[in-house]
Amino acid sequence: EVQLVQSGAEVKKPGESLKISCKVSGYNFADYLIAWVRQMPGKGLEWMGIIFPGDSDTTYSPSFQGQVTISADKTINTAYLQWTSLKASDTAIYYCARQGSTGNFDYWGQGALVTVSS
Amino acid sequence: QSALTQPASVSGSPGQSITISCTGITSDIGADKFVSWYQQYPGNAPKVIIFDVRVRPSGVSKRYSGSMSGNTASLTISGLQAEDEADYYCSSCTHSSTLVVFGGGTKLTVL
Protein backbone atom coordinates (compact mmCIF):
# COMPACT_ATOMS: atom_id res chain seq x y z
CA GLU A 1 0.00 0.00 0.00
CA VAL A 2 1.38 3.39 -1.03
CA GLN A 3 1.54 5.86 1.85
CA LEU A 4 2.87 9.38 2.20
CA VAL A 5 3.04 10.32 5.88
CA GLN A 6 3.84 13.90 6.72
CA SER A 7 5.28 15.39 9.88
CA GLY A 8 2.95 17.12 12.30
CA ALA A 9 1.60 20.61 12.68
CA GLU A 10 4.08 23.37 13.46
CA VAL A 11 3.72 26.75 15.14
CA LYS A 12 6.60 29.11 14.46
CA LYS A 13 7.49 32.76 14.81
CA PRO A 14 8.38 35.01 11.87
CA GLY A 15 12.05 34.71 11.00
CA GLU A 16 12.39 31.16 12.30
CA SER A 17 13.47 28.25 10.14
CA LEU A 18 11.51 25.06 9.51
CA LYS A 19 11.87 21.75 7.73
CA ILE A 20 8.84 19.50 7.28
CA SER A 21 8.96 15.95 6.02
CA CYS A 22 7.08 13.44 3.91
CA LYS A 23 7.93 9.79 4.48
CA VAL A 24 7.03 7.45 1.66
CA SER A 25 6.34 3.73 1.68
CA GLY A 26 4.82 1.14 -0.63
CA TYR A 27 6.80 1.86 -3.79
CA ASN A 28 10.34 2.61 -4.95
CA PHE A 29 10.82 6.17 -3.67
CA ALA A 30 13.64 6.89 -6.11
CA ASP A 31 11.47 6.25 -9.17
CA TYR A 32 8.72 8.87 -8.84
CA LEU A 33 8.54 12.64 -8.53
CA ILE A 34 7.40 14.10 -5.23
CA ALA A 35 5.63 17.45 -5.37
CA TRP A 36 4.82 19.96 -2.66
CA VAL A 37 1.50 21.81 -2.80
CA ARG A 38 0.46 24.79 -0.68
CA GLN A 39 -3.07 25.58 0.43
CA MET A 40 -3.44 28.87 2.27
CA PRO A 41 -6.39 29.21 4.66
CA GLY A 42 -9.63 29.09 2.70
CA LYS A 43 -7.78 29.20 -0.61
CA GLY A 44 -6.93 26.93 -3.50
CA LEU A 45 -4.06 24.61 -4.33
CA GLU A 46 -0.70 25.94 -5.47
CA TRP A 47 2.06 23.79 -6.95
CA MET A 48 5.35 24.74 -5.32
CA GLY A 49 7.84 22.40 -6.93
CA ILE A 50 9.07 18.86 -7.30
CA ILE A 51 12.00 16.64 -6.63
CA PHE A 52 13.09 13.44 -8.34
CA PRO A 53 14.51 11.48 -5.43
CA GLY A 54 16.61 9.30 -7.70
CA ASP A 55 19.04 12.15 -8.37
CA SER A 56 17.60 14.95 -6.19
CA ASP A 57 16.90 17.07 -9.27
CA THR A 58 14.44 19.83 -8.41
CA THR A 59 12.11 22.16 -10.29
CA TYR A 60 10.38 25.09 -8.61
CA SER A 61 7.40 27.18 -9.51
CA PRO A 62 8.58 30.70 -10.29
CA SER A 63 6.35 31.85 -7.40
CA PHE A 64 8.31 29.77 -4.90
CA GLN A 65 11.82 29.80 -6.38
CA GLY A 66 14.20 31.12 -3.75
CA GLN A 67 11.54 31.05 -1.04
CA VAL A 68 11.75 27.35 -0.11
CA THR A 69 14.08 24.41 -0.60
CA ILE A 70 12.94 20.94 -1.57
CA SER A 71 15.21 18.03 -0.80
CA ALA A 72 15.08 14.27 -0.36
CA ASP A 73 16.97 11.48 1.36
CA LYS A 74 16.43 8.29 -0.59
CA THR A 75 18.14 6.22 2.10
CA ILE A 76 15.14 6.84 4.36
CA ASN A 77 12.48 7.40 1.65
CA THR A 78 11.76 10.92 2.85
CA ALA A 79 11.21 14.23 1.07
CA TYR A 80 11.53 17.61 2.76
CA LEU A 81 10.32 21.18 2.39
CA GLN A 82 12.40 23.82 4.12
CA TRP A 83 12.29 27.51 4.96
CA THR A 84 15.17 29.56 6.33
CA SER A 85 13.13 32.57 7.44
CA LEU A 86 9.38 32.12 7.81
CA LYS A 87 6.84 34.87 7.21
CA ALA A 88 3.29 35.17 8.44
CA SER A 89 2.20 34.67 4.83
CA ASP A 90 3.71 31.15 4.91
CA THR A 91 0.82 30.08 7.15
CA ALA A 92 -0.84 27.28 5.20
CA ILE A 93 -1.37 23.56 4.88
CA TYR A 94 1.42 21.93 2.91
CA TYR A 95 0.82 18.67 1.09
CA CYS A 96 3.30 16.31 -0.45
CA ALA A 97 2.04 14.22 -3.35
CA ARG A 98 3.40 11.70 -5.81
CA GLN A 99 3.44 13.30 -9.26
CA GLY A 100 3.03 11.13 -12.32
CA SER A 101 4.56 11.63 -15.74
CA THR A 102 1.47 13.48 -16.99
CA GLY A 103 1.30 15.82 -14.02
CA ASN A 104 -1.33 13.98 -12.04
CA PHE A 105 -1.05 13.46 -8.30
CA ASP A 106 -2.15 9.93 -7.49
CA TYR A 107 -1.16 9.74 -3.83
CA TRP A 108 -1.18 12.53 -1.26
CA GLY A 109 0.12 13.03 2.24
CA GLN A 110 -2.33 14.03 4.93
CA GLY A 111 -1.07 17.60 4.95
CA ALA A 112 0.94 19.56 7.49
CA LEU A 113 -0.42 22.79 8.96
CA VAL A 114 2.25 25.44 9.40
CA THR A 115 1.24 28.46 11.45
CA VAL A 116 3.57 31.45 11.55
CA SER A 117 2.61 34.03 14.13
CA SER A 118 4.33 36.37 16.51
CA GLN B 1 1.51 28.42 -18.32
CA SER B 2 -0.58 30.77 -16.20
CA ALA B 3 -3.05 29.67 -13.55
CA LEU B 4 -6.17 28.03 -14.93
CA THR B 5 -9.62 29.60 -14.63
CA GLN B 6 -12.56 27.83 -13.01
CA PRO B 7 -15.93 29.16 -11.88
CA ALA B 8 -15.87 29.92 -8.17
CA SER B 9 -19.06 27.97 -7.54
CA VAL B 10 -21.64 25.77 -9.20
CA SER B 11 -24.76 24.16 -7.83
CA GLY B 12 -27.26 21.54 -8.78
CA SER B 13 -30.06 19.43 -7.40
CA PRO B 14 -29.79 15.72 -6.68
CA GLY B 15 -30.05 13.69 -9.85
CA GLN B 16 -29.05 16.54 -12.12
CA SER B 17 -25.80 16.87 -14.07
CA ILE B 18 -23.35 19.71 -13.66
CA THR B 19 -20.24 20.71 -15.58
CA ILE B 20 -17.22 22.56 -14.25
CA SER B 21 -15.00 24.26 -16.79
CA CYS B 22 -11.27 24.88 -16.65
CA THR B 23 -9.92 27.33 -19.18
CA GLY B 24 -6.40 28.31 -20.18
CA ILE B 25 -5.03 24.85 -20.91
CA THR B 26 -1.94 25.06 -23.12
CA SER B 27 0.32 22.43 -24.59
CA ASP B 28 3.41 22.05 -26.67
CA ILE B 29 2.61 22.20 -30.36
CA GLY B 30 1.31 18.87 -31.57
CA ALA B 31 1.50 17.31 -28.13
CA ASP B 32 -1.22 15.93 -25.93
CA LYS B 33 -2.74 18.06 -23.23
CA PHE B 34 -2.51 16.73 -19.70
CA VAL B 35 -5.39 17.64 -17.41
CA SER B 36 -6.37 16.21 -14.06
CA TRP B 37 -9.27 16.86 -11.71
CA TYR B 38 -9.27 16.62 -7.93
CA GLN B 39 -12.02 16.45 -5.34
CA GLN B 40 -11.37 17.89 -1.90
CA TYR B 41 -13.60 17.67 1.15
CA PRO B 42 -13.04 20.16 4.00
CA GLY B 43 -10.18 19.09 6.19
CA ASN B 44 -9.01 16.39 3.79
CA ALA B 45 -6.30 16.04 1.20
CA PRO B 46 -7.37 16.26 -2.44
CA LYS B 47 -8.15 13.05 -4.32
CA VAL B 48 -7.65 12.54 -8.04
CA ILE B 49 -10.90 11.71 -9.86
CA ILE B 50 -9.81 12.24 -13.48
CA PHE B 51 -6.35 12.27 -15.08
CA ASP B 52 -5.09 12.52 -18.66
CA VAL B 53 -8.21 14.56 -19.53
CA ARG B 54 -10.70 11.71 -19.29
CA VAL B 55 -9.25 8.69 -17.45
CA ARG B 56 -10.91 7.64 -14.21
CA PRO B 57 -8.72 5.99 -11.59
CA SER B 58 -9.85 2.63 -10.30
CA GLY B 59 -12.60 3.03 -7.75
CA VAL B 60 -13.83 6.42 -8.92
CA SER B 61 -17.52 6.57 -9.78
CA LYS B 62 -18.51 6.47 -13.45
CA ARG B 63 -20.67 9.51 -12.72
CA TYR B 64 -17.49 11.57 -13.08
CA SER B 65 -16.27 12.23 -16.61
CA GLY B 66 -13.74 14.53 -18.21
CA SER B 67 -13.49 16.08 -21.63
CA MET B 68 -11.55 18.68 -23.58
CA SER B 69 -12.36 21.21 -26.28
CA GLY B 70 -9.74 23.62 -27.48
CA ASN B 71 -8.12 25.17 -24.45
CA THR B 72 -10.95 24.28 -22.08
CA ALA B 73 -11.25 21.12 -20.03
CA SER B 74 -14.50 20.12 -18.39
CA LEU B 75 -15.55 17.89 -15.53
CA THR B 76 -19.10 16.57 -15.67
CA ILE B 77 -20.80 14.97 -12.70
CA SER B 78 -23.99 13.15 -13.58
CA GLY B 79 -26.69 11.93 -11.23
CA LEU B 80 -25.65 14.48 -8.62
CA GLN B 81 -25.59 13.16 -5.06
CA ALA B 82 -25.20 14.90 -1.71
CA GLU B 83 -21.76 13.29 -1.33
CA ASP B 84 -20.55 15.19 -4.40
CA GLU B 85 -20.63 18.45 -2.46
CA ALA B 86 -16.95 19.39 -2.29
CA ASP B 87 -14.31 21.60 -3.85
CA TYR B 88 -13.01 20.62 -7.28
CA TYR B 89 -9.69 21.60 -8.81
CA CYS B 90 -8.29 21.14 -12.28
CA SER B 91 -4.58 20.98 -13.01
CA SER B 92 -2.45 20.80 -16.10
CA CYS B 93 1.11 20.48 -17.22
CA THR B 94 2.76 20.50 -20.62
CA HIS B 95 4.43 17.57 -22.33
CA SER B 96 7.88 19.11 -22.04
CA SER B 97 7.67 20.32 -18.47
CA THR B 98 7.00 18.87 -15.06
CA LEU B 99 5.70 22.26 -13.90
CA VAL B 100 2.03 21.99 -12.91
CA VAL B 101 -0.58 24.71 -12.58
CA PHE B 102 -3.89 24.46 -10.75
CA GLY B 103 -7.19 26.14 -11.34
CA GLY B 104 -8.57 28.34 -8.60
CA GLY B 105 -11.08 25.71 -7.53
CA THR B 106 -14.84 25.37 -7.75
CA LYS B 107 -17.15 24.85 -4.81
CA LEU B 108 -19.98 22.49 -5.73
CA THR B 109 -23.17 22.83 -3.72
CA VAL B 110 -25.83 20.14 -3.94
CA LEU B 111 -29.14 21.87 -3.29
Main beta sheet strand tally, sense and closure of chain B = 6 strands, mixed
Strand fraction band of chain A? over 45%
| SSE order of chain B | EEEEEEEEE
Question: How many individual β-strands of chain A?
Answer: 11
What is the string of SSEs of chain A from the N terminus onward? EEEEEEEEEEE
Mean pLDDT rating of chain B: 92
Report the principal-axis shape of chain B.
Answer: globular
Tell me roughly what share of residues is in helical segments of chain B.
Answer: under 10%
Q: Tell me the structural class of chain A.
A: mainly beta
What Rg of chain B, in angstroms, do the CA atoms define? 13 Å
Mean pLDDT across all residues of chain A, rounded?
A: 96
The residue ranges of chain A in which pLDDT falls below 50 over 5 or more consecutive positions are none
- Give the strand tally of chain B: 9
Detail the poorly predicted runs of chain B. Answer: none
What does the overall shape of chain A look like?
Answer: globular
Main interface pair? A-B, 22 and 24 residues
3D structure, described in words:
The complex is a heterodimer of chains A (118) and B (111). Chain A has 118 residues and is mainly beta. In chain A, strands 2, 4, 5, 6, 9, 10 and 11 form a 7-stranded mixed sheet that branches. A 4-stranded antiparallel sheet of chain A has the order 1-3-8-7, with no helix packed on it. In chain A, a hairpin with a 5-residue loop joins β9 and β10. The radius of gyration of chain B is 13 Å and the shape is globular. Chain B is 0% helix and 44% strand. Chain B has 111 residues and is mainly beta. In chain B, the strands form 2 sheets. In chain B, strands 1, 3, 4, 7, 8 and 9 form a 6-stranded mixed sheet that branches. A 3-stranded antiparallel sheet of chain B has the order 2-6-5, with no helix packed on it. Classes of the chains: A mainly beta (118), B mainly beta (111). At the A-B interface, β4, β5 and β10 of A face β3, β7 and β8 of B.
